[in-house]
Specification:
Elements (H helix, E strand, L loop, with lengths): L7 H16 L15 E3 L3 H7 L11 E4 L4 E6 L21 E6 L5 H10 L8 E4 L5 H9 L4 E4 L1 H8 L4 H19 L1 H4 L6 H14 L7 E6 L20 E7 L10 E6 L5 H20 L6 H14 L11 E3 L6 E5 L12 E4 L2 E4 L3 E4 L2 E5 L4 E3 L8 E2 L1
Parallel strand pairs: 1-5, 3-4, 5-6, 9-17
Antiparallel strand pairs: 1-2, 2-3, 7-8, 8-9, 10-11, 12-15, 13-14, 15-16
Length: 389
């Protein structure tokens, strides 16, 4: 278990802001949270963001409970050691008192949650906001045993996690540089005669060698497989003349993720492929140029889509232009038609238009960008052109 990547003061500030959002009338958002809604956060990116606790969700309940006047952690005794590598031990010195209660098999952890919510009184009827990754295994007992009314905490927590502070941006830069180093090695990793699976295995090793804790995903889509945006890998042998989509990423030790796609040509591309790819390259550049404070997420999506549509390729762009990134590979904000949220400094997301010709070939170009005061900063700097290997 890695140490918490940031000092306790960072997590103390996050917990205070989470409590303030939950307690204030502004917490209602689209989910209608009443003022004073407590938070229940189970293992996953939200818990890691708020406390530095990085663990999985098991059949034994671990939960952070945040009310207007208290912060509590409920944890199985056999898993209490995970707190040592989190920010929890240092939060008191940072001005936030955390009550830690452990429990042993045979005890009722849901009753412990109820006691923190109601100060020992009956919590029945209390409205709580739960993290959206809470498994039904724990959500149902919270409702049935305690009589809680449950809403999602997404509206509260996304307001915090969407905006990256300087330390988070530094981690995203480091992740971007690490995955760029993997793409820089592609001439050695991606070869005619290898199967997609063999290439993916080599890339997976390179991702770790270049500074990630693991590979979260490796997509190698060669030839017609490149026309499937979410193709994984297969035993297809890569052939001369193939266009190959390589979409890769993973977390650093801090938990912050990389995600970058480049497209490669196994030998010189045909004139048609080169011309269509050039349009995609212009579309990706247009979307990056459209990122500035006050622009809406949907306007950034439209900037890429319009270039492709004007060239007669709009129907072959079949997914959104981007997604937020941080402790999760996919998080808010989503760069998609219909999302009128204004982008603001500190937001980080992908710009990744693609074109996909079923049965033929596909291509995608993806950078992660961080919104600045006057535009954006791409954290990926590898060339965007169709790289011939």
């Amino acid at each position: 278990m890695a140490d918490s990547p940031f000092p306790p003061t960072v997590y103390a500030d996050r917990l205070r802001r989470a409590a303030a959002l939950a307690a204030g009338s502004g917490a209602s958002g689209s989910n209608g949270h009443p003022a004073g809604t407590p938070l229940i956060v189970t293992p996953g990116p939200d818990l890691a963001y708020l406390t530095g606790i990085r663990s999985e969700s098991f059949e034994r309940l671990t939960a952070l409970v945040v009310t207007a006047d208290a912060v509590s952690v409920i944890v199985p005794r056999l898993e209490r050691a995970i707190l040592a590598d989190s920010a929890v031990p240092g939060l008191a010195a940072a001005g936030v008192t955390v009550e830690v209660t452990d429990w042993v098999d045979g005890a009722d952890p849901y009753a412990l949650v109820g006691a923190r919510l109601a100060g020992g009184s009956d919590p029945s009827g209390t409205t709580v906001a739960v993290s959206d990754g809470t498994p039904a295994l724990h959500l149902v007992p919270l409702i049935e045993r305690l009589g809680l009314k449950v809403v999602l905490a997404t509206d509260i927590l996304r307001r915090l996690r969407m905006f990256k502070d300087a330390a988070e941006v530094a981690e995203l830069r480091a992740a971007g540089q690490a995955i760029d180093r993997v793409h820089a090695r592609m001439a050695d990793l991606l070869r005619v005669g290898r199967t997609e699976r063999e290439v993916a295995e080599a890339i997976t090793a390179a991702i770790v060698e270049e500074g990630h804790s693991r590979a979260e995903f490796v997509i190698v889509g060669s030839g017609p497989h490149g026309a499937d945006p979410h193709h994984d890998v297969s035993d297809r042998v890569i052939e001369a003349g193939d266009v190959v989509v390589v979409d890769i990423g993973g977390p650093l030790a801090s938990g912050y993720n990389s995600d970058s796609t480049r497209t490669y040509s196994m030998g010189q591309p045909t004139a048609e492929v080169a011309a269509q790819y050039a349009v995609l390259e212009r579309a990706q550049a247009a979307a990056v140029a459209a990122v500035r404070p006050g622009a809406t997420a949907e306007s950034v999506d439209a900037a890429a889509r319009d270039v492709l549509t004007q060239a007669g390729l709009g129907e072959f762009f079949v997914h959104r232009t981007g997604h937020g990134i941080g402790l999760s590979v996919h998080e808010e904000p989503y760069i998609v038609a219909g999302n009128d949220i204004p982008v603001q400094p500190g937001m980080a997301f992908s710009i990744e238009p693609g074109i996909y010709f079923p049965g033929g070939w596909g291509a995608r170009i993806e950078d992660i960008v961080v919104v600045t005061e006057d535009g954006c900063e791409p954290v990926n700097t590898r060339p965007h052109g169709l790289t011939v290997v």
